[in-house]
Each structure stands twice: as C-alpha cells, then as structure tokens.
Amino acid sequence: MKWLQLIASLVVLAVLGWAFRDELDFLKDGLSTLRHADPWGILVVVLTTAGAITAMSEVMRLLIRSGGVNVPLRETSAVTLASNSWSTTLPAGPAFSAVLTFNVQRGWGCSVMLCGWFFVLSSAISTMWLVMIGLAGVLFLNADMALWSLVSTLLLMLGLSAALFWLTNNPRRVEAWLNHQRLLKGTKREAVIKQVRNLEEVHVNRYEFSRVLVFSLLHRLLDMVSLWACVWAITGDIPALRAGEDQTTTAGIAIAYLTAKLAGSAQVTPAGLGTVEAAIIATLVAMGMTAVDATGAAIIYRLISFAAVTAVGWVVYFLHYARKGMTYAALSRKET
Q1: Which of 7, 13, 184, 328 sits in a 20 to 30 Å window from 281, CA-based?
Q2: Each residue of 58-102: pLDDT tens digit?
Q3: Interval 252-279: pLDDT, tens
Q4: Where do transmembrane segments lie in this chain (predicted)?
C-alpha cells in the first residue's frame, strides 16, 4: 500500500507535466539560468545548508545531554543526515525516520522517556520558529496568511515548550498534585506517577534551554538564508528590504520559505516533490520576481537542500548504520 502511494504520486506528477508541457517554457528558461548563476551565491547556499544541518544536530545533542547522555556532534549530525534521507525518500518516510532516530538514540543509552522528550520538544520549538517567520511576513508584508491561525499555533507551541520545561524541573510538584486527584485511582494513578517520575532523568536549566532555542532558530534562519542566497545567485542582486524591477525583498523570500515548508509538510508527494518547487516559484513571482528567475532559484534551492543533502545522508546511512543491522526491513518489523 505504501509503495502504491509513492507510485501514484509520481504518476500524478508525470501526468501533470505532460498535460502542461506546452505551458511550461519558463522551466526550460529557468534551467538555462543555472549556467550563469553567481558562484559566490552558490557557495553561500552550500555553507548555510550545511550550517542548518549542524544547528539541527546541535539541538539533538543538547536535548539528549539534558538526560545525562553525552554524544559528540558528529554522531548527532550523522543520524540527522541519515534520518532526513529516510524521511525524504522512503514510503512513509517521516515515520521510519523517527524509528531510525529512536533506535540510534537508544543505542547511545537514551531512555524511552528521553527519546520522547527530544521528539516532542524539538518539534514544538521548530514549529514555533517557523510560525514566527510567518508572523513576520504578515506584519511586515501584509501577507494573507490566516493571522489568527498563526497566532493560535504560536501560542500552542509556546505553551507546550514552557510546560515541558516546567515539568522537567518540577516532577515532585506534579506527583504531589496527582496524589490528591480523585479522578485517578489505583493502577492508572500509579502508571501516570511512574511516567512523571521518569522526568527526573532530564535536567535542563534556563541557560541550556535558551541554547536549544537559539540553535533551533538558527536552523530555521540558515535554511531560509539558503533560499535567499539562491535568489542572489540567479539574479546577481542581493535581496534587501526594498525590491527593484523584477526583484523581491528579504521579506518576500521569508514568505516563499514558509509557503514551501507548509507545502512540503502536506506530504502530497515524496519530499514534496513538485509541490515545494511550485510553492516557491509561485510565491517569488507574486513577490516581484520573473517566473524564469524564480524557477532558477527554486531549482538551486532544491538541488542543494534536498537532493544533495539526501545523497549525503544515504552515504552516511550505508557507512554508519546499515552495517549495524539498522535496515529498512529490520526497522519495519520493529514498527509493526
């Protein structure tokens, strides 16, 4: 069934490409612009993409260190790259990516609770910063992006992050409160209290939590800067606060970045193939760029941030994890 979903998605892309083949001349022109891309801009794209991966890896390192598990950055970088490749390539990739990360972290000595703490908190913080980028676009560009939906999501993620931080530093208070609750009795109460006591494994102070926030934000910003550099590489002009003729602004790129991430999260096609590129192109055009330049920028961004990173991730996986028995088939059996 999962493979059928993948094949169906690719068939839909092929059919759409064939149906609109006479209307997509800008794709051909966009590809031709790659020959004249600014090499310094391309270098910035590569560096910021690598920096974004490193920042994401540092978030993992800091969060699991709060549970007393110390691993070097190269190890968290390896699993970040490998799991990203699983997520963007395989059917039901995000689920198997999480399984791979979980098994690697367990191999480091992380408890089940610590692994869960990492997944929930890192996702909440990352989503929070993505919503902040959207809010910035609404405030500075008057973009039509469902303001109250963004605000409610932001408040939810802020509340979740704050609650998790408070819980890890006050498990005894939570346990005392649970002992006075009449709704929970017997084995149910004991089970909940046991999970609360597990939170004592995690010790994160405000300084360490602030570092997690900073590196998570850095991951998002560097990823967005890589798209900004793609526009620079194609147009030869550095995007700023004001747009010239056939140009966009930094705020416009921020909107394109958020739109692309939302399109990719829908998982309509593997890794958002086709939908992410279309979202970037359409948004950049709406923000002032020509379709040809927007296409060139989108292609460079996806070639480096998706194709190149995925390829590197697969190399890391086969060299670092496949030989340890962490294969797709083996982890599929564990998931089921």
Answers
A1: 7
A2: 999 998 988 888 999 999 999 999 999 888 887 677 888 888 999
A3: 888 889 888 877 776 666 666 777 888 8
A4: 40-64, 114-140, 146-167, 271-292, 298-319
Distance CA 328, CA 95 (A): 12
Does residue 10 or residue 101 have the better pLDDT?
A: 101
Which residues have CB under 8 Å from 215's CB, separation 6+?
55, 56, 58, 59, 62
Residue 40 burial (10 A CB sphere; 0-12, 13-18, 19+): exposed
How far is Cα 136 from Cα 314, in angstroms, rounded to an integer?
Answer: 35
For residue 187, give both structure tokens.
């084995």
Any idea how long the chain is?
336
What pLDDT is attached to residue 79?
A: 94
| pLDDT tens per residue across span 167-176 | 666 666 666 6
**Side-chain half-sphere CA neighbours of 108 within 13 A:** 25
Tokens of 266: 């829908």
Q: Give residue limits of the domains in the chain.
A: 37-330
Asked whether the beta carbons of 71 and 98 are under 8 A apart, the reply is no
In the chain, the largest separation of any two C-alpha atoms, in whole Å, equals: 71
